[in-house]
Amino acid sequence: MPTGVALREVRKLLFDAAERVLLRDGPSGLTSRAVTTEAGCAKGVLHRHFPDFDAFLAEFVLDRAQRMDEQAAALRHAAGTGTVAGNLTDALTALFRSVAVAIVPLVTYRDELRARLRTAWPAGVPVLTEACTMIASYLAAERDLGRIAPEADVEALAPMLIGTAHLMFADRTGTPPEAEAVRAMVDSIIGGVLRDTQG
């Protein structure tokens, strides 16, 4: 039986390989053989540590969703600095240029993966629901600082920003949108609630 440290190392190796395959080849290219080949290890390594491939994928998706805690903390820390629209543009661009945008079609593509995720993640799609929480928390902080209107409904604005950004970045094979386009989208959604107190 491997030690906890060894297991963490194997998980990291396999999860990082899965991310590279998913970003490069999309959900249809993400197979256990593709992951182990990318990781440079025998196929049996994955099956020694996970009951089956969907169990591996469920843990991979949840691991990537949990990694958003660091992004969320950085965005909350940015409250009161720069501009609200600039901070949101940077956060959304970083989010959707990461593996996040590729996880959504993966979850949609695999019925068994969705079923397994429901036990740990009862509502929404991992990553997107975390992203909405991250954006809503940031907007609430800016509202508390007076940089957006006190009546601003951050719980409604956050999914509007995430959903629209997801549509902009959804074409994995195309050219990602320029920062100016993302900023224009952000301005159109939050422009009505911004206050003149920004630096």
TrEMBL record:
SUPFAM superfamilies linked to this entry: Homeodomain-like, Tetracyclin repressor-like, C-terminal domain
Regions recorded as binding DNA: 31-50
Top-level taxon: Bacteria
Keyword field contains Magnesium: no
A Pfam family matched in the record: TetR_N
An example Gene Ontology molecular-function term: DNA-binding transcription factor activity
InterPro entries: Homeodomain-like_sf, HTH-type_TetR-like_transc_reg, HTH_TetR, Tet_transcr_reg_TetR-rel_C_sf
Protein name: Transcriptional regulator, TetR family
Source organism of this protein record: Thermobispora bispora (strain ATCC 19993 / DSM 43833 / CBS 139.67 / JCM 10125 / KCTC 9307 / NBRC 14880 / R51)
